[in-house]
Amino acid sequence: MLYREAGQFKASYKEDQQIFPIRQDRIAIALILAFFYLGVPYFASQYWLQGIMIPVLIFSLAAIGLNILTGYAGQLSLGSAAFMAVGAFAAYNFVLRVPGMPILVAFVLAGLCAAAVGMVFGLPSLRIKGFYLAVATLAAQFFIVWALTKFPWFSNHSSSGVITAQKVVILGYVFETPEAKYLLTLGVVTVLALLAKNMVRSSIGRSWMAIRDMDVAAEVIGIRPMHTKLMAFAVSSFYCGVAGALYAYTYLGTVEPEGFNLDLSFRILFMVIIGGVGSIMGSFLGAAFIVLLPIFLNISMHMLGDWVPQGLASNLELIVFGGLIIFFLIVEPHGLARLWQIGKEKLRLWPFPH
Amino acid sequence: MSNGRQIGEVILDLQNISLRFGGVKALTDISFDVREHEIRAIIGPNGAGKSSMLNVINGVYRPQEGTIVFRGKKRHDMDTHEAAEAGFARTFQNIALFKGMSVLDNLMTGRNLKMKSNFLLQALYWGPAQREELAHRRKVEEVIDFLEIEHIRKTPVGRLPYGLQKRVELGRALAAEPKVLLLDEPMAGMNVEEKQDMCRFVLDVNDHFGTTIVLIEHDMAVVMDISDRVVVLDYGKKIADGTPDEVRNNEDVIKAYLGVAH
Question: Which residues contact residue A245 at a Cβ distance below 8 angstroms, ignoring those fewer than 6 apart?
Answer without folding.
Answer: A87, A88, A90, A91, A106, A107, A110, A111
